[in-house]
Amino acid sequence: MYKFFFKRVCDLVVSIIALPFWLIVLLIIGPIIYFQDRGSIFYNAPRLGKDGRIFKMYKFRSMKINAPDIRNEDGSTFNSEDDPRLTHIGKLMRKASIDELPQLLNVLIGDMSIIGPRPDLPEDLKLYNDFQKKRLEVKPGITGYSQAYFRNSATQEEKFNNDSFYAENITLLFDLKIVLKTIVTVLRKENVYKNKGEYGNKTTIKQ
């Protein structure tokens, strides 16, 4: 009952309550993002949703305009504290996960949940094995099991498996534990970046 009904109710209640606070952050952060390079405030990215449906995910833009997509050897997104693609405000937003706040709009629309697997790129679908496809049985989340407990320290393969484990074991208690762990992880700034050389020394740039 929780997975198929009350979870959505909780999403709506939390996102509606949080919306005024998000608007305050937007009024403060938005002009700073714009005036740093006169670019868009938001970054709208196509992502895989429930049942493999592609949707537009909203984020505060943390990178410079036309920044290249750099990946680690395992295909995961490259993250580094000295990443030259990040704007000054982008570095601060990444550390505090403020760039993810616009996804409250995705929750209200119904594309995402507060808790769920972090949404992957559409092309990642071909990388899933049968077990990993289970993550598509639930809505992606602003935070989730892998994000809260491992953040960027897990390999892409581990992340896929963690997401599918969550999809098979959703309960209210599990979601509450994820929320508490997310708060601790963000406050402690744990695993924000992958260490240099982790998952291989080379990176590839996807044009």
**Which shape, going by the Cα principal axes?**
globular
> What would you report as the Rg, rounded to the nearest angstrom?
17 Å
Mean pLDDT: 86
Please describe the biggest sheet, giving its number of strands, its sense, and whether it closes into a barrel: 2 strands, antiparallel
**What is the number of domains?**
1
Number of helices in the DSSP assignment: 6
Q: End-to-end distance, in Å?
A: 44 Å
- pLDDT below 50 for ≥5 consecutive residues: which ranges? 195-207
Helices and strands: which structural class?
A: alpha+beta
Strand share of the residues? 5-15%
How many beta-strand elements? 6
Q: Biggest sheet, strands in spatial order?
A: 1-2
Helix percentage: 40-55%
Order of helices and strands: HEEEHHEEHHHE
Structural account:
- There is one protein chain.
- With 207 residues, the chain is of the alpha+beta class.
- The chain has one domain (2-206).
- Helix content is 42%, strand content 14%.
- It has helices spanning 2-37, 88-96, 103-109, 145-149, 156-168, 172-188, and strands spanning 42-48, 54-60, 69-72, 113-115, 141-143, 203-206.
- The strands form three sheets. The chain has a two-stranded antiparallel sheet. The chain has a two-stranded antiparallel ribbon with strand order 3-6. Strands 4-5 form a two-stranded parallel sheet.
- Helix 1 (2-37) packs antiparallel against helix 3.
- The radius of gyration is 17 Å and the shape is globular.
- Residues 195-207 have low confidence and may be disordered.
